[in-house]
Amino acid sequence: MMKDAQHEDGYPWTWEPAALTGILLLIIGILAVQIGRTAALLFTGSGLWWPTSEHLVTSCWAILRGNTTAGLPTHTAVGSPMWLVWTMTAAAAAAMCGTSGWALMRLRGRAIKGMATADQAQHLLGLRRLRLTRGIIRPDLYPKGRQ
Prior knowledge:
single chain; 147 residues; mainly alpha
């Protein structure tokens, strides 16, 4: 099985990527709860409401416990059913995680790994030269005694 790189990375796996992943999941969770509650309020006809910046994080626990108007101005007395809030929250979280995963895979694919693709090698060297030097290029597939 071929590796992505020609050599092993000398930098050890540390706690920073895990901490970054945890923080990003926490941010996605907080935003998903707020987006889910906002979408549920919009679907039930209560209007489009978003909490103020000081209530963005602190109202999440109250929303998860069933208070769908937590952190909103006091004149929004109409709530929405909790099942709708949970459904919208799950949909928002899935969409954000899917988009983040897609973006990560797109950006990761652009990294230069130091190896040319088969098409790039054929275009640069030519098919004849590749066939003549195949034992040097891939000695595991074309040993010296084999013609």
